[in-house]
Amino acid sequence: MKMYSDPHENYCRLQRTVKYLQAGGRITEDWVEEHRYHVRKYCDMFGYMSVVHPEITDPMFRQKARNVEKMLQDLKITFDLGGYYQLNQDLIDMTNILMSEDDLLECMNKLSMF
């Protein structure tokens, strides 16, 4: 789906979700359905997170990749806000390791528009 093809927008979506949950945003049935859809798409797109970017040997990255893989599978079965928050946070952490400083600044600028 086109909405997932822009890496910057994907990162900003993760950031917006974390900020929304931290701020105690209203969790409606529609919100949950939208974010369940994100979980399904992440599962389809990433498959086995524990093997993404095998060239990265950073222990934190590898551990987060394993955690994300498990959380995605768990969230497909039972959507839990705490688990979903942690998933987004871990994906942000992994992305921070992968992205350049300029990429991160661009995403943060986009985020500040919301």
Give the topology.
Blueprint: H1 7-22, H2 29-46, H3 59-77, H4 81-98, H5 101-112
Q: Care to describe what's here?
A:
By secondary structure, this protein is mainly alpha-helical. It has one domain (about 1-110). It contains five helices and no strands. It has helices at about 5-20, 30-45, 60-75, 80-100, 100-110. Helix 1 crosses helix 4. It is globular. The model has no long low-confidence stretch (mean pLDDT about 85).
Keyphrases for this structure?
single chain, 5 helices, mainly alpha, 73% helix, 114 residues
Main beta sheet = none
- Percent of residues in helical segments? over 70%
Mean pLDDT: 85
Domains counted in the coordinates: how many?
A: 1
**What is the distance, rounded to the nearest whole angstrom, between the alpha carbons of the first and last residues?**
23 Å
Please compute the radius of gyration using only Cα atoms.
Answer: 14 Å
Which class of secondary structure composition applies to the elements? mainly alpha
Total beta-strand segments: 0
Number of helices: 5
